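assembly run, all chains below
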Amino acid sequence: MPRDIRLRALFWQTGTVLLLLALWQWAAVAHPAPYLPSLKPVALAYLSLLKPGNFMDTVFPSLSRLAVGFGVAVALGTVVGIALGYLRWLDPWIRPVLEYLRFVPTVAILPAALLLFGATDTMRIFVIAFGSVFPVLLAAIDGARRGNTLLLDVARVLKFSLAEKLFRVVLPGALPSIFAGVRIALSIGLVMMVISELIAANDGLGFYILRNQRLFQTANVYAGVLMLGTIGLILTLGLLSIEKRVLAWHRGWRGLSDARS
Amino acid sequence: MSKPLLSMEGVSKAYSADAQILRDVTFQQGTNEFLAIVGPSGCGKTTMLRCISALMRPDSGVVFHEGQTFDDPPPWLSIVFQDYNRSLFPWLSVRRNVEQGLRDVAKSERDDRVSEALAAVKLDHAADLYPWQLSGGMQQRCALARSIVSAPRLLLLDEPFASVDAQTRIDLQDLVMDICERMSLSALLVTHDIDEAVFMADKVVVLSTRPATVVEEIPIDLPRPRDQLTTKETPEFLHLRHKVYTLVRQQAQ
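ok done. output:
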């Protein structure tokens, strides 16, 4: 992008954020209400969440559950999806179950998970993994199935083993599709993380928001919500940068970018 | 005692009852022989190549490689496909693509052999580029390097020059003949280009229209090395070209 267009975009982006903040501040000052604190206490609460003690009680537990649950979902979804996509004869057996499960609203799994695992970390990790596994799984199946069949012939001639075919031919070919699934899975994982912490929890961001709501600490509630947005943003940016690196060949191959970028 | 390198015996293949592709195909290829298979377009050349390479099993008839049958491609066989765009691993560099042609070879030896193969196809300067950074001719040379790096005994070429421009095609033809000569490789070229078949091969097998069967085997006794200009101007070349051309055209009618 040319420099002046980028600068203009930056100007409008910053401008929009500042405008929204100003609107908030104006509303809070002009119409004081307990449910709408002004910017200052919210900002202070937000910053205090980053203090080591609060961070370890609130943000860290959430992040570590998300990391494990989301990690399991990505790994499981990828491996199972690649295998199912490659072994086409399995498809008629597996597909109805998958198509059914994907339409079960993942939030509805929460009470069942609570019964199964109790109010434990395992329950929360399970809920996160359950919610985010399906987009990855379906994307991996799809990517593996639409893969390049000529390359599989090449692999046969070159004497690749089954594992090599799966992980060195089918998987790389399905990665563009898988990354699209992973991005969707991340947003679902975040939702499931918060929801799982709203029930019978004693730490984590979800718990923090819920408790402060009950205590009428509205500034803290908003600070927690903003923190969730920050986490989502940072994780998405991280994911995009990994994707950019891993899929450099794909962008070049598709001619979407030139050789230098 | 020596069995022919490749022997097709009465091979037939149909995709369904009314779509028979191959009918009773029989021919042999000797060691160090450059064989070309020509036929009208859509006559089932690719299906035949898949049967030869054991990527596909014929409905009846047998394919022997040195007297043996195979359920999977024999380890000494390699293929260059027409569609270089889809036959290279787009996520691997040229060097790593060629490396895939070498199985069970120690790392130190592998590097040397990959470099050799890349030099043979004049691609050593592009070893670290990715397929999408190469022209069509360079991509096909990369595929060729991958096919010869394992020093195969039989090189199958499935219309390998069909998707490149005329000048590149001529360069690739010379390159392939040169490599086969130097590495004493046997090659089986499937093509619809009669000039190319006569120019490159020791023997041309002419196929009929679908269902394809062998119409005639024509030995090409033009001296080697062959030259794009002088060989193609000799009366012998023109005579053979005329003969093959007439046969193929008769089939198409």
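Chain B has a mean pLDDT of 91.

The CA atoms of residues 92 and 127 of chain B lie 11 Å apart.

not gonna interpret more than that til we talk
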